[in-house]
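Here is one chain, start to finish.
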Amino acid sequence: MSDKTTYFVLKEKAVPEVLLKVVEAKRLLDSGRCVSVQEATEQVGISRSSFYKYKEDIFPFRENVRGKTITMVIQLEDEPGVLSEILQTVAKYHANILTIHQSIPVNGVASLTLSVDVLPETGDVSEMVQTMEQTQGIQFVKILAKE
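Its structure:
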């Protein structure tokens, strides 16, 4: 079985109710209307475990992605050229790097936090992330935030 992540776009009516409630709980937390996960999950009617299980897997789709920032963490092996490959992938997809921070490698592995500005010419962001995941020396890519 492949470890490749695949992304889908679904109409709201095809998404299970629990996932829609996770999105609503995240919106309540982001807006400040709820100050805790407990409060947000109670308000939308789901368990905290459901929230934590799905919170990293569902985001609302926005058609106008101009000026959207995506922050991701990438765990990479401490080998020459791995960071360069990631930066080349970002350049290939015409995204703009806003911030980049790489930790000091520990046991041959470093963490890279990368924020990119998604431009109209960027194209398919999920394809860009998938390309990063398939790069030799990359252990994982995780999207932390989309703004």
